[in-house]
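so my prof wants the structure for this chain in the tokens format not the other one, which i didnt know existed until like an hour ago. anyway here's the sequence
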Amino acid sequence: MNSILKKISIVIMTITMLLPLLAVLPTHADAATTDPALTKIKKKGTLVIGLSADYAPFEFHATVNGRDQIVGFDVEMAKKIAKDLGVKPVIKEMGFDGLIGALQTGKIDVIISGINATPEREKVVDFSNSYMKPLQTVMVLKKDASKYSGNLNSFSGKKIGVQKQTTQETYAQESMSGSTIVSLQKVPDLVAQLSTGKIAGIVLNEPISKAYTQQNKAFKIIYPKPSSGEGAVSIAMPKNSPVLKAKINKSLGNIIKSGELEAYQKRANKLMFADQSFWAKYGNLFVKGTLLTLALAAVAVVLGIVLGTVFALFKLSPNTILRIIGNVYVEYVRGTPLLVQAFMVFFGTQVIGLNLSAFAAGALAMGLNSAAYVAEIIRSGINSVDFGQTEASRSLGLSKGKTMRYVILPQAVKNILPALGNEFVTIIKEGSVVSVIGVGELMFQTGVVQGASFKPFFPLVIASLIYFVLTFGISRSLGYAEKRMNRSSR
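here's what i got, hopefully its the right format
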């Protein structure tokens, strides 16, 4: 009997010791086939690719079969990788300097936008194997080319343009310390400055500088000596994504080995120089940008007026807590840039689980920003109504709420309408700020046209005329409404 009990106890102890191992085994099996980033992608059935489509021939806008599309060899490569992963590609366009933040907060799954794997970036994201290592170049005006040489010291004392948060910016800071570095967000803006002689040159990687010099004979490429590579152009993905990285590397290797990448580059170059009129190629982008600008302004104005009225009443409230809330909100929002607020809303909402689109985040940021200014406009308008109106209303038995609603606010509207009209006009123009998070409003589309057409100035002229028509028309309409209200009050 004792021997049987002893055997049973040994069996129980063995099973007990094996249970943790049995529990761990499936985890190791899962870890070999997936990771959180890949699981998320598979669950959605989409690969959300972040890029900045102003970087031809890597990615840019072009009219294909009468439709505007984001094209380029990066885009074709992204679609092939998504196909190899068994999911659908979704392109999400935004400013280059917002891409890593979008990747970290889960707005996008990968960055495929000519991005370089640098030690600083590798601290926060993972990178695939390199698929290109282009040379660094300096693009100058051909008429000034004789002043400069491959020796970068020849640029000492000159202004040199670079794109923000790129390896070109780092390269210029380290190798051209005698020059004044001008960092801008978009390459077309740099080209515009070079064309007008505001800067002496632009540090660009070879595919980009070649594209510009092929299109515009006024430019010339200078190769620094000794030659320097831009670095490893790779695909960025969330940190600690080993399985996703392995699958992307496998797909990338097949693309390069099969010669597909070279074919993608040839097709991109062909689309860059397609023989179409300027308006046929880019007119729809201006129309799209204008409509989105108006929609953005309309949403922001409605939100601004509603919230502005609430905070104006808070500031005028006898309740101390409400007054403090109103004052803190107004002072904080007015004391911080709209650009910062746009980033806070776009990335901050993602952190708390709200996956707002770029348009929704941009409209919300603009509405919240406008509310602070509208609150002050409405507060001053209410205060401009003679206090005797309040006393008369109260003597007739109206409550505070009804007095404000039926007597004070209607009179205040006449006083604040011109200021509200100016705020609406301001919002239309300020919409360009939220383009950094990928809202495709007018200035965003203008930048896209600059990048795709290699014409840095002409698209700005068109955008300025569109803005003038919008703001002039709104100003005149509001002026007419103001006159009608003045007549009715006589």
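also thought this was worth mentioning. Residues 154 and 238 are 41 Å apart (CA to CA).
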